[in-house]
Amino acid sequence: MSKTLRHIRNFSIIAHIDHGKSTLADRLLEMTGTVDQRNMTSQLLDKMELEQERGITIKAQTARLRYKAKDGQEYQFNLIDTPGHVDFSYEVSRSLQACEGALLLVDASQGVQAQTLAHTYEAVAQDLEIIMVWNKVDLPNADVEKISQEVEDVLGLDTTEAISISAKTGENVDKVLEQIVSKIPPPEGDVDMPLKALLFDSWYDSYLGVVCLIRVFEGSLKKGTKVQFMSNKANFEVERVGVLSPQMTVVNELGPGEVGFFAAAIKEVSQARVGDTITTQHHGADKPLEGFKLVKPTVFCGIFPTTQQDMNDLRDSLEKLQLNDTSLTFEPESSAALGFGFRCGFLGLLHMEIIQERLEREFQMDVITTAPTVAYKVHTIKGQVMDIDNPAKLPEPQEIDYIEEPMIEATIHTPGEHLGAIIKLCEDKRGRQVSMEYPSPSRIILTYLLPLNEVVFDFYDKLKSVSRGYASLDYEFKNFERSKIIRLDMMINGSKVDALSNMIHQDNAYYRGREIAKKLKEIIPRQMFEVAVQAAIGNKIIARESIPAMRKNVTAKCYGGDISRKRKLLERQKEGKKRMKRLGNVDLPQDAFLAVLKVD
């Protein structure tokens, strides 16, 4: 093994949301002298404005650190900070592919949570060396012994060499650096072999074009190298090679085991797909590296520009977002109410919310989003099977034999005192209990089979409120099950508004139809004529609300005198309103579409 390879360590930090990954990354950057004290800010690797506002990591970030070990030897660390939220777990699997080891961070006051489990299993499946780190030991309710026992019982990992630290104060962080050197194996690779690099992230830069973040496994990459993307055989000449430390720094070359970026004037976003293998144009590698599993979107919604002239800009913006977020899918669709737009697929509601906010902030797009739905399998009486993710495309009821809906297996970690409320919530959402385990006397792991349709709306928010924020959730797709799913249509003045339609279980249809109608009554501004808001299943109206007309006082100028004069004026007003009702359009505000999401 070459001298340089022996002194490289590639590692990730994995943990549940809010267990201190970004804070630990800050301390590592500080203690290795990678960032000057004057440039140091908290959550330095969370560069996105949204990440800083919400205090969560959305994009995995990398940084190269230089560390001088106690034996006087200098090491190169490539650190990859990962997100913790369930919607962004695909970012974690991507990052782990580029590493040989992982720091498993557990909050010493909260213990093992749902994402701790999910990320650890992912790291074990990829055969990574795991270093145990108990964080937040400076908190008064931290209990290291209890946490160690819990990790051994739940994860089955040996905790004898675990390090107790406080990422906030920097206590014992130097021990973490020493363990990275001693426990994580150096990367393997041969500089004389043909280039083989894994593209694990990319983003769009207005000066450089598409910038690709790679981990080199074999060979080397320098300026002027003619590279080829193995999935689509696209060829480019490398114009700039560099590393993130954590600012973009240009270097001469990237060798085996190193993590860095390159730019090659790639203009088309679609040419650099995350997970692709990059090799040289001539005498390249024979077969690509194993990518990582492609994640399929589970939640779908329509995104429409508020003015149709912005349609092309919206397409460009979505393409740029899709570049480094392979789980975002979109295809054109049209709606009678909203015009032309895109049907987009997401991993979950937070993912959908983040994409929507990024469209508004980073690309200054003004968009309307429709109610989220999931993909159903519709079996027709002719024996066809259709995948339907848009209520507008559902065939007529008489053509449908039966519908299957996606089911997920949800794992919920909770303190014992909230068990009753969480079981009630799961039962209300048509859930079926699979198992209940007690990893420690005060903590419970609940496993439930739940319809994804029920989880999409407000399950996560309700789970947090009934458990006062202590419960954590992780889920994975299980299978499709036969169910009584129907389409609920909303009608304004007798015409269906396709963008307000949603697919729902028969038992909840009446209740939800009534609630949406009430919400729309509050939100739709009053017109000069009466507006009827109705919920319908097929041709059957199941709920109705009326928005009264605005009324001008036409008799204001009649002081006393004959009553028949007043009557004449009122009759004329009535005629005018009838005519307006025939011709009038109802203007639906954006809040009307959001109301469908936020029905309690």
Number of domains: 5
**CATH class (first level) name of the largest domain:** Alpha Beta
Mean pLDDT: 78
Percent strand equals 25-35%
Number of helices: 14
Using only C-alpha atoms, the radius of gyration works out to: 29 Å
Structural class comes to: alpha+beta
CATH architecture annotation of the largest domain: 3-Layer(aba) Sandwich
Major beta sheet summary: 8 strands, antiparallel
Distance between the termini: 62 Å
Q: Any idea what the shape is?
A: globular
- The largest beta-sheet arranges its strands as 11-10-16-7-8-15-12-13
What name goes with the CATH superfamily of the largest domain?
P-loop containing nucleotide triphosphate hydrolases
Q: Helix proportion of residues, in percent?
A: 25-40%
The overall strand count is 31
At the fold tier of CATH, the topology name of the largest domain is: Rossmann fold
Query: Which regions contain 5 or more consecutive residues with pLDDT less than 50?
Result: 43-48
List the helices and strands and how they pair.
Layout: H1 3-6, E1 8-14, H2 21-31, H3 49-54, E2 61-68, E3 74-81, H4 89-96, E4 101-107, H5 114-125, E5 129-135, H6 144-155, E6 163-164, H7 173-183, E7 196-205, E8 209-218, E9 221-222, E10 226-229, E11 234-237, E12 240-244, E13 248-250, E14 253-254, E15 259-263, E16 277-280, E17 299-305, H8 311-323, E18 329-335, E19 339-346, H9 349-362, E20 367-369, E21 376-380, E22 385-388, E23 400-415, H10 419-428, E24 432-440, E25 443-451, H11 452-466, E26 472-483, E27 485-492, E28 495-496, E29 502-505, H12 506-523, E30 531-537, E31 540-547, H13 563-583, H14 590-597
Parallel strand pairs: 1-3, 1-4, 4-5, 5-6
Antiparallel strand pairs: 2-3, 7-8, 7-16, 8-15, 9-14, 10-11, 10-16, 12-13, 12-15, 17-19, 17-20, 18-19, 21-22, 21-23, 23-25, 23-26, 24-25, 27-28, 27-29, 27-30, 30-31
Helix pairs in contact: 4-5, 12-14
